Amino acid sequence: MRQARTTELPRPRRPAAFREPANAALYAALLLSMGLALFMAFVFAPAERVQAEVYRILFVHVPSAWLAFAAFGVVAIGSVMYLIHGKSRWDRLAHASAEIGVLFTTLCLVTGSIWGRSVWGVWWQWDPRLTTTLIMWFIYVSYLALRSYIDDPNTGRRMSSVLGIVGVVSVPIVWFSVEWWRSLHPTPSITNPGGGMPPEMLTALLVSVAAFTVFYVVLVRQRMQLELAVAELGSLRERLHERNEDSA
Amino acid sequence: MIRLGQRNVLRGVSLSLAPGERLAVVGPNGAGKTTLLRALAGLIRPRSGRVSLRGGRGPDEPASRAGLGFLGHRAPLYPHLSARENLAFAARLHGISDAAARIESALRTVGLARDANRLMRDYSRGMQQRLGLALALLPEPDVVLLDEPDASLDAAGVDDLPTMLDALAPRAAVLFSTHDERVARALGARIVRLQAGRLMDDPRAASAAHSSTIRLPPPPRPPGFARAVWAMIAKDARIEWRAREQVPTLLMFTLLAAVVFDMAFIAALGSEVAAVAVGVLWISVLLAATLAGTRLFATEYERGTLDGLLVAPVDPSGIYLAKFALLALETAFVGVAQLVFLSLLLNVSLFQASTIGAVLLASAAISAILALQSSLVVNARAREMLMPLLAIPPAVPVLLAGVGITLGALEVTPAGQQGAWFGLLAVVTVVFLTLGTVLYPQAARA
């Protein structure tokens, strides 16, 4: 502590993870909603007539897909705002959301593949929904790659913001793919009132979407705080360096 | 304030200059001189503070760059153009009306009249620096920014500097950086010292207080947008004609792709020759476009000529459009060549109106995507590896549409769906051209 005072460096903000009330509330909400979602998915929702138990993977698959879309939408919003206002906070949001979006897209592809193996008998089909999702995954992986390959942070932020805006074009294509082309993939069941899903299943699905949304918010906040800590560490190092230069 | 990386490179620097005034920024290596000049030229965005030219708008607006002359560390010269051609291109970018006369007088002033038709790659460093000065001063700018103008000049060149400035920019406000205070004094410049991003002595006190009484001439009219875009396309075409960097290698690549893919697939598919031909056609078009696209902005960036384009009084979206047009031409060339190769090698009738139309439109669509992606990877490490990752996923719809149209043309699938595929190609072209035109200016300046 004494050393910190003599170098006149600001005290770093304390790691926020569990201490801030907002975070504590979020974690509580996450625990509760995830618990409820698990109960709904495995106990409350009845088995399906044809698929029996395997359909339950839907309670992970659908929320992942939804949140992938939402996450990439947030990437585009963060990118536009960063280019307009130049505040690195918006870029941190876009970056965090892209990472989590890729995570959820991966989850969506993997769970879809497992389901496909049991229902269609194959791990992969060259179906419009599957193919477009895979391309969307590639686009956001390339977004993350571009970020990590540009050394100057300001340039990296600008370039990836542009890509974050271009990439969002893929989201509506994935969304509408089941309607534009003949597809093996089941059509939307939540937004489509005649989807034919029993009310218990629909309730369970909505609860797991809500739980996953809380999960997404928690992850994005964590990732943004981590990024902020990294940036602060960098600027503290730089100030220390400058101070040493000045005194030399 | 300007940050590069985690570092604040410039802090609290405030300078003002009146017409005809010369100001030298002197400082050791790493003091922030280059950063200051690049920020003043609009090549770097300051995080806070502002740069105003002619007391008004900042250098990020094309019109305000009309009266700006900039010479950075490296003169923005194209190695495969002669001195005269380099100047002529700059004159077209800046919309200079009496270009020929001014180019001759600039060449005489910097002492290069006898070497005017030699290609830049044959010039020595010192000669390039002289030509760089002529280039920066060609538009008769009223604001001149020079980063170490004495660098790589011989003693005679350094002695000539005042004459060059007096002759080519007599009324301009000149701000330059140098290590050497003697150069600053020879140019009759006021000196400020920059150290670790801070000005050592505040120049505002010494600044010309009567600046408001000096009348500025009206800035030169910037060139028409279409004219500037055309100048950039013509410049690239001329360089390609001389250097032959892209077209012959792309052509050989296409032929190689045709042969290798044919050999790989024919054995497996046997009778389905048409399907093989279609697959090979579109894969090779996409790969060739990716190869050419990677170099699209990278060559300008590596030669330092991208700075020259960015300080010209042209909206940066024009640079994107020119690069798009160049790549579309190259890709279309490859595609049409591949139609011929495959028709000959596989004995299929690929050379038809609808397939040629598909190749042309798909080339436009792919190029609209790749030209933007190419500008994004320009600063990245391993850009040759990164470019395919960025470029190919969004180009998949183009691939599908191209395959759809050509399969229809070869009657492998019913021909009725071709209209929809052409529609998709048109939509992709329009969407990405719009995105590129809007977003490239955002990516152009760090």
Comma- or semicolon-separated keywords:
heterodimer; A: 248 residues; mainly alpha; 8 helices; 75% helix; globular; B: alpha/beta; two-stranded antiparallel ribbon; 14 helices; elongated
Which strands sit side by side, in order, in the main sheet of chain B?
4-5-6-3-7-8
Structural class by helix and strand composition of chain A: mainly alpha
Looking at the chains present, what oligomeric state does this protein adopt?
A: heterodimer
**Main sheet attributes: strand count, strand direction, barrel closure of chain B:** 6 strands, mixed
Number of helices of chain A: 8
The backbone outline of chain A, from C-alpha atoms, is: globular
Overall geometric form of chain B: elongated
What is the CA-based Rg of chain B, rounded? Answer: 26 Å
Order of helices and strands of chain B: EEEHEHHHEHEHEEHHHHHHHH
Structural class of chain B: alpha/beta
Order of helices and strands of chain A: HHHHHHHH
Q: Tell me the greatest interface.
A: A-B, 36 and 35 residues
Give a quick account of the main beta sheet of chain A: strands, pairing sense, barrel closure.
none
Number of strands of chain A: 0
Mean pLDDT of chain B: 85
Per DSSP, the total helix count of chain B is 14
Distance between the termini of chain B: 14 Å
Structural account:
The complex is a heterodimer of chains A (248) and B (446). Chain A has eight helices and no strands. Chain A is mainly alpha-helical. Residues 1-7 of chain A have low confidence and may be disordered. In chain A, helix 2 (21-44) runs antiparallel to helix 8 and helix 3 (58-85) packs parallel to helix 8. Chain A has one domain (58-189, 199-243). Chain B folds into two domains: 2-213, 3-Layer(aba) Sandwich (Rossmann fold); 225-444, no CATH class. Chain B is built from 14 helices and eight strands. Chain B has helices at 33-40, 83-93, 99-109, 125-137, 155-168, 181-186, 225-243, 247-269, 273-303, 305-311, 317-346, 353-376, 383-409, 418-444, and strands at 2-4, 7-10, 22-26, 68-71, 143-147, 173-178, 190-195, 198-199. Chain B starts with a strand and ends with a helix. Residues 204-215 of chain B have low confidence and may be disordered. Classes of the chains: A mainly alpha (248), B alpha/beta (446). The A-B interface holds A 83, 86, 131, 135, 138-139, 141-142, 145-146, 149-156, 158-159, 161-163, 165-167, 169-170, 173, 234-235, 237-238, 242, 245-246 and B 3-8, 45, 47, 196, 372-373, 376-377, 379-383, 386, 389-390, 392-394, 396-397, 431-432, 435, 439-440, 442-443, 445-446.
